[in-house]
Amino acid sequence: CRMYDFDRNGTMSFQEFLALNKFLQKVQGVFSTLERGVVDFSALRMCMRR
Ligand SMILES: [Ca+2]
Predict the structure, then answer these.
(1) pTM, full prediction
(2) Which one of 20, 24, 28, 37 has the minimum C-beta count within 10 Å?
(3) How many CA atoms lie within 13 A of 39 on its CB side?
(4) pLDDT (tens digit per residue) in 1-50
(5) Measuring CA to CA, how many Å separate 11 from each of 2, 18, 19, 21, 29?
(6) Residue 28 near residue 40, CB atoms below 8 Å
(7) CA 22 – ligand 1 centroid, Å
(8) Which residue from 44, 46, 1, 49 is spatially nearest to 23, judged by alpha carbons?
(9) Tell me, what's the pLDDT at 23?
């Protein structure tokens, strides 16, 4: 799940998760009128499981 790994160290820290959350909220705000489900939260959950 490198696409969520902002500093590209191979793992997703809690700090990165928070940053990602902020980012996703922004993205969702932009795209929510265009299409719901642009951000796949189930994929993110799989990412966190590792
Ligand atoms: Ca990282």
Answers:
(1) 0.47
(2) 37
(3) 17
(4) 566 788 888 888 888 989 888 988 888 777 766 665 555 666 667 777 76
(5) 8, 14, 14, 16, 27
(6) no
(7) 16
(8) 44
(9) 87
Cα 5–Cα 26–Cα 2 angle in degrees, nearest 5: 15
Residue 34 CA to ligand 1 center (angstroms) comes to 30
Angstrom CA distances, 35 to 3, 15, 22, 28, 45, stand at: 20, 28, 19, 9, 21
33 alpha carbon – ligand 1 mean position (Å): 30
**pLDDT value, residue 50:** 62
